[in-house]
Write a structure and sequence with these properties.
67 residues; alpha+beta; three-stranded antiparallel β-sheet; elongated
Length: 67
């Protein structure tokens, strides 16, 4: 079995993080390794230190056998 990881997020309207700004959505992946997904998350999260309304997270797909 193999788990796949995705890094998702973007620029939000405000610091409540309730809604993404249209067109700012980003998806990176899939990654077959959590470490690779975390490296991408760090790259996206910390590339602009002044971006208070930018947020990314790592999402993992449920375990299953990929064919």
């Amino acid at each position: 079995m193999e788990r796949r990881y995705w890094v998702i997020g973007g620029e939000y309207s405000n610091c409540d993080f309730g809604a993404l700004e249209p067109g700012s959505e980003q998806i990176s992946g899939p990654f077959n390794c959590e470490v690779k997904a975390r490296t991408e998350w760090q790259r996206l999260t910390f590339r602009d230190k002044a971006a208070a309304t930018t947020r990314f997270t790592i999402a993992a797909e449920p375990d299953r056998i990929w064919q």
